């Protein structure tokens, strides 16, 4: 289980340097904004996991008349975001856990970028978000899919086998498109999902792992041993290098899922309109 206290601490410690290393997250933010623009005009927006306020700024520029509530689990991140968005009077900030929302109001748009992987219970989180949507409101997000860092996962698996060490999962467990479809369909939301792969290149495994730590994405699982056995790490790094290195660089793949969902509207007679549920699976591959 992911410790929210550790998540908050990790991101808090990296809040000042986050933007320098969050290259993929920024790319996701731009793509997410396009989905939001396609969905329409909004008046009351909640952002979950605003971080330093990168997407918040894009939203504030796009919707200057909207009321925007930017939330995050890290008070340090909110401090940075508040400073970065000081010129926008339509933005307020809230210290919130995205899967345990305490806000009393409802929104016509809930948006989130690269935050859902820190949820412990996706069903609970999406149920909470659906309850905080107005009828006809939209839930739009970008999150990391199950194939994210598949090179790293394969390398850890090989290291565990080689050293005959019991397999444990390192880091957050990413969600599948099928599970997202099942959860959102079960809540009666319309479903539109897209996916893309973005591959970053690094000079070595150590450089890759350092870049991950720089954006606060350490192992935040409660009860796990943070100090991974040295032999396991060396074995993992050897396998990663020998299996995936090309032209002196190793790849790290981000599997990104974009979701756009709409809550049913009430009819004049108090019944809910039905939406046709459509899954759209379009894949793009980007090398960076």
UniProtKB/TrEMBL annotation:
This is Malonyl-[acyl-carrier protein] O-methyltransferase. GO terms for biological process: biotin biosynthetic process; methylation. Belongs to the methyltransferase superfamily. The keyword Magnesium does not apply. Gene3D superfamilies: Vaccinia Virus protein VP39 (3.40.50.150). Pathway: Cofactor biosynthesis; biotin biosynthesis. It comes from the Bacteria. HAMAP family: BioC. It catalyses: malonyl-[ACP] + S-adenosyl-L-methionine = malonyl-[ACP] methyl ester + S-adenosyl-L-homocysteine. Keywords: Biotin biosynthesis, Methyltransferase, S-adenosyl-L-methionine, Transferase. SUPFAM superfamilies: S-adenosyl-L-methionine-dependent methyltransferases. The keyword S-adenosyl-L-methionine applies. NCBIfam families: BioC. GO terms for molecular function: carboxyl-O-methyltransferase activity; malonyl-CoA methyltransferase activity. Residues 44-155 form the Methyltransferase domain. Converts the free carboxyl group of a malonyl-thioester to its methyl ester by transfer of a methyl group from S-adenosyl-L-methionine (SAM). It allows to synthesize pimeloyl-ACP via the fatty acid synthetic pathway. Its EC number is 2.1.1.197. InterPro entries: BioC, Malonyl-ACP_OMT, Methyltranfer_dom, SAM-dependent_MTases_sf. PANTHER family: ARGININE-HYDROXYLASE NDUFAF5, MITOCHONDRIAL.
